[in-house]
Amino acid sequence: MTEKPHLMIVEARFYEDIADELARGAIAEIEKDGATYQRVAVPGCLEIPAAILYALRSMDFFTARKRFDGYVALGCVIRGETTHYDIVCNESARGLQDLALRYALAVGNGVLTVENREQAWARASVAAKNKGGFAARACLDMIELKRQFRLYPR
C-alpha cells in the first residue's frame, strides 16, 4: 500500500482573509485525497519560495523530521500604484518555478495576481473559482506524476 503524501502549505498572510479562504480550499482538497499537511505562515508572497527552500534544506540537518512530498503556495498580490506589484508577482512565481525545476519538487502555485479585492475573492472563494483547492490538486497530481517516473519513493 502506498503511503499518502504529506504536504507543506505555505501561506502568505498579507491579506489574511483571502489567505484563510485559499487555505480552506486547499485543505479540503488535501483531506479529500487522504493526504496530510502542515501549514506555515510567511509575511508575503516573496517569502514563500524561501520558506519552501528552508524546509527542503532542513532535511540536510534534521533527517528525523517527516519530509514533505509536495508544496502548496498560497497568497495574493493586488496591484497598487507602483511597480512593486510586478516585482512581487514575477519574483515569487520565478522562485517557485526555480525550486520545482532545480529540485524536482511537486509545487502547486495558488498565488493570486489580481487587480483588486473583488477579483481576489472571486478566485479565492471555495464557492467560486477555488484557486486554493486547484493549487492543492495540482500539487497532488504532480506527486502522482513523480510516482509514475519513479521519482517519488513511497
From TrEMBL:
InterPro entries: LS, LS/RS, LS/RS_sf. It holds the Pfam family DMRL_synthase. The keyword Transferase applies. Signal peptide: none annotated. Keywords: Riboflavin biosynthesis, Transferase. Pathway: Cofactor biosynthesis; riboflavin biosynthesis; riboflavin from 2-hydroxy-3-oxobutyl phosphate and 5-amino-6-(D-ribitylamino)uracil: step 1/2. It catalyses: (2S)-2-hydroxy-3-oxobutyl phosphate + 5-amino-6-(D-ribitylamino)uracil = 6,7-dimethyl-8-(1-D-ribityl)lumazine + phosphate + 2 H2O + H(+). CDD domains: Lumazine_synthase-I (cd09209). This is 6,7-dimethyl-8-ribityllumazine synthase.
